[in-house]
From TrEMBL:
SMART domains, A to Z: JAB_MPN
Coiled coil: none
InterPro entries: eIF3f, EIF3F/CSN6-like_C, JAMM/MPN+_dom, MPN
Keyword Transferase: no
Region (Disordered): 316-358
GO cellular component, as recorded: eukaryotic 43S preinitiation complex; eukaryotic 48S preinitiation complex; eukaryotic translation initiation factor 3 complex, eIF3m
Protein name in UniProt: Eukaryotic translation initiation factor 3 subunit F
Complex and partners: Component of the eukaryotic translation initiation factor 3 (eIF-3) complex.
Family: Belongs to the eIF-3 subunit F family.
Length: 358
């Protein structure tokens, strides 16, 4: 009778450059990407040099914040790095990368270097070289793993992104410096309500001929949001009706989601909602009226202050001119009095007659 013996595969720890007192980590990460970083990557791909001597992909550095335990990173910013790539070699402008990184970290002290990105889903030997450069202790993210994000930018196709970290592999230290193992990690493109509104506004340009989306006012934006909400409610009501009529297969996950959404709705009467809404509108109008009144008062006070300064300057000039005229008149009177006094003293004395000279 054969005895089943479990088989195991023992893998040694990959070779990596060691730093005294620092232990590198290859723990799984959760990568969060902000929309502005994705837009910067797409803009870099559109503005790339399409000459035959240049590479078909572009690369750049990723900046952001890292959690205290290092298990989650958030990509907030990025910048492009010039490079040339062909079948034989790849050249990266290291000095430009260092200067731009120092400038970015000076402008945003809370951000750190997280890794790099490229606009190609392909992973090759050059990708391993660049990954090791960004993961090195001197110029990279060591002891934290460098994050590598790939974004596909092929025209006419949907944008696809992937995130990786790496582990060095090789039979010796030299081979480990030239190769690495890319490990996929989960990622998420996270955006807030304000960013979602901006993305929806920008996405409206795809349906126009001039590829432009006009900026709407607050009232128009509110009207569009209400119309979209009504359309979604109609779709949900149609789906529920079709499920009740056994025209469509029910979905437990969707039903649970609808139950959770309905449980968040406040249980109040429609009249109370209308009254609260009217009170809110009145409060908004009062605040708007007060803001306009304060703005008008500030503008009026500024104009009055300017007029007062202008009139005060004219009066000061006139007073200065009058004072100088009075001083001159007083000085002239004093001089005239002195001369008159001298004449009086001269008139009281008799002058001796002089003989005519031949």
């Amino acid at each position: 009778m054969a005895v089943e013996i479990p088989s195991f595969l023992h893998l040694a720890r990959p070779l990596a450059p060691a730093v005294i007192g620092v232990q590198p980590t290859t723990a799984p990460l959760n990568v969060i990407i902000q929309p502005q970083a994705v837009f910067s990557i797409l803009d870099h791909a559109i503005r790339r040099d399409i000459r035959d001597t240049q590479s078909t992909r572009v690369i750049g550095a990723l900046l952001g914040v890292r959690s205290e335990d290092g298990m989650e990173v958030e990509v907030r910013n990025c910048f492009a790095i010039p490079h040339t790539e062909n079948e034989d070699q790849v050249e990266v402008d290291v000095e430009y990368q260092k200067n731009m990184l120092a400038l970015q970290l000076k402008a945003n002290p809370r951000e750190v270097l997280l890794g790099w990105y490229t606009t190609s889903l392909e992973l090759n030997n050059f990708s391993a070289l660049i990954q090791n450069f960004f993961a090195s202790p001197e110029t990279g993210t060591f002891p934290h793993p460098a994050v590598h994000v790939t974004v596909s930018t092929e025209p006419g196709k949907e944008i696809e992104a992937k995130a990786y970290i790496s582990a060095p592999v090789g039979v010796n230290a030299e081979r480990a410096a030239e190769s690495c193992l890319f490990i996929p990690v989960p990622y998420e493109i996270r955006y807030g309500e304000a960013e979602k509104s901006g993305l929806e506004l920008i996405s409206g340009a795809k349906d126009s001929e001039n590829r432009a989306a006009p900026v709407v006012s607050d009232i128009e934006g509110l009207e569009r949001a209400v119309d979209q909400t009504l359309d979604l409610l109609d779709r949900v009501a149609e789906y529920v009706s079709s499920v009740l009529d056994e025209e469509r297969e029910p979905s437990n996950a969707l039903g649970q989601f609808l139950m959770n959404a309905l449980s968040l709705a406040p249980k109040v009467d429609p009249q109370d909602i209308e009254r609260d809404f009217n009170n809110h509108i009145q409060d908004v109008l009062v605040v708007s009226y007060l803001a306009n009144t304060i703005r008008t008062q500030i503008d009026l006070s500024q104009r009055l202050a300017t007029a007062t300064l202008t009139m005060g300057g004219s009066d000061a000039l006139a007073a200065t001119g009058g004072g100088e005229g009075g001083e001159k008149g007083e000085r002239g009177g004093q001089r005239g009095g002195k001369r008159g006094g001298r004449g009086g003293r001269g008139g009281g004395q008799q002058r001796e007659p002089r003989e005519p000279t031949e």
